[in-house]
Amino acid sequence: MKAIPERITYAQETLIRLLEARKLRKWCQENGITHSSAYRLAVGEILPNYRIMASTCHLIAPIDWLFFTDEPRPYESQLLPKWDNTEPAKFIKEHRRDYREIAMRYGLSDLIAYNIFVTYRKVPTIKLMRDACAEVNPTEFFMPYSMEITQDYIPKKGDIVRAGKDGRTYLVITNSEKNREFGSFTGCLISENCKDGLELSGTKTGEFVNPRSLATVRLDDAAPLVLIEKTETELVEQTAGMALEYLS
Question: Whole-prediction pTM value?
Fold first, then answer.
């Protein structure tokens, strides 16, 4: 066996333990992995990439490839279903519109970021995934964007949704039963700048909801309808109360 590097990742540690116990070959055979590739990864001859992480995330937690054993992992190790690396994952789809901001934040060129987040011609690098751990669990690079809504979706009170071809974003203030009955939802428009708005602090949306900008949107006109996230009940009630005051 070749000399083991002084500094190894948690994933390498897993492979090295199998190697030292003379179980690596059997483990590879049982899981359809090339033994030579697993060996070279273990001893640091080759570096992991997104494809490798995606194809083994049911066996080795993605975060274990990103951090060395002499540093703490910011999230728990979590095994995931095997991921198709050709599919754009949750983190990628969520940042399709703000890819330039992501590029600046993580030191990517606009072109590289565009090809990762918009055209999907490139896959995330190890560095990007590690750096993004300051913001999200790396599992988000290996799971689907489950917030994309089907035609059967009925907005619920407290949902933040993006509606229609113009992509306007609303905080829904009517409950799902009423929305289903009338085939529409009532919500307050969310925008980046609003003097009298309520800040959506602690949310991914991170903008302002405007109680003065109350609108009823027909579900037939709302397609494509995308659920971005859900908000706290207190904020929804405050928004609805202010909206009613402005109407009275």
Answer: 0.60
